[in-house]
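Escalation from tier 1.

The customer reports that the assembly of four entities below gives different structure tokens on two consecutive runs. Tier 1 could not reproduce it. I'm attaching the input and our single run for tier 2 to review.
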Amino acid sequence: MTVTATDAVVAAAETAVADQEPARLARCRGPVLHPRPTGRDQYTISEVAEHTGLSAHTLRWYERIGLMPHVDRTHTGQRRFSNRDLDWLDLVTKLRLTGMPVADMVRYAELVREGEHTFAEREELLTAHRADVRERIAELQDTLRVLDYKIDAYADARRASEGV
Amino acid sequence: MTVTATDAVVAAAETAVADQEPARLARCRGPVLHPRPTGRDQYTISEVAEHTGLSAHTLRWYERIGLMPHVDRTHTGQRRFSNRDLDWLDLVTKLRLTGMPVADMVRYAELVREGEHTFAEREELLTAHRADVRERIAELQDTLRVLDYKIDAYADARRASEGV
DNA sequence: CGCTTGCTTGGAGTGCACTCCAAGTCTCTA
DNA sequence: TAGAGACTTGGAGTGCACTCCAAGCAAGCG
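Tier 1 run:
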């Protein structure tokens, strides 16, 4: 497989998001547990597992079902993940945490592999998922109100019985 | 099974949340699709399925695994759900939508059956779940930012190619 | 009375997303 | 160079939350 100009453009687009993300979101999180070592572009499967929190099993399974772009191999066939692979896994992990079905992520991965002419469909897919995510946030906040109410009720009951 | 004073108190506490909820949350939703008919306290399983969006299979299964309080039966053994059952199902549905495992909901149902002395543990259980929900909202909002960024990028690409 | 439709049960089946296994190969450290 | 430990594969197994099935009972209608 050769790397075409189109591939490069797509890859750049794909990578840009992950690249700019840590900076934007840094304030939301504590220190990253397993910072990516700088100046390296080769990771064993267990290093990637450690870094992403996915199991090595899951990483192999992702590759089997077409959710990973082709991962480099050593001359003896062992996987060597690149920083770009890690970027991709960061995105996949985010989408997974927001409940996107694996089948949809595989579809998205296919579109990415197919090149630039799938931009429109990718945008559609992500837009649909964004609507989902927004709905789910609303549901969660809905439930949060109920939880607050009930927890308050139980706390009141506790205080009343302790205070007597 | 007799209804004790404790049961009544607990039931009132359980019901209160569901009762006050539609009013509070009405602004967030369109018209309710299947409003509960007034002046009725007897529903067949298919009516409840229609109302809650759960399947009749699922309702029977909820009862089997102890997620429903005992449901009344006709003299021939058919289920007749009460308004209180519907209130309970509303809560269960909310908790389920926010990803509470069924096992945890069953545990909560048990605590409710056991009476007032389990208030503290119920509060704990709900508080733990609330923390979960908050974390998940944060995750979703995190991903929302990434989605916005990527969708924008694709939209820009589309506009650029159309505008040339 | 027969027909249709709805309800009952325990148990089996489904789909998703992993998760593990067995048997063999490779890499690293002493 | 020997041994520990990490890596490989296809396929089987797991856990969750339903989802359906078969066989039978019950209610309402023409």
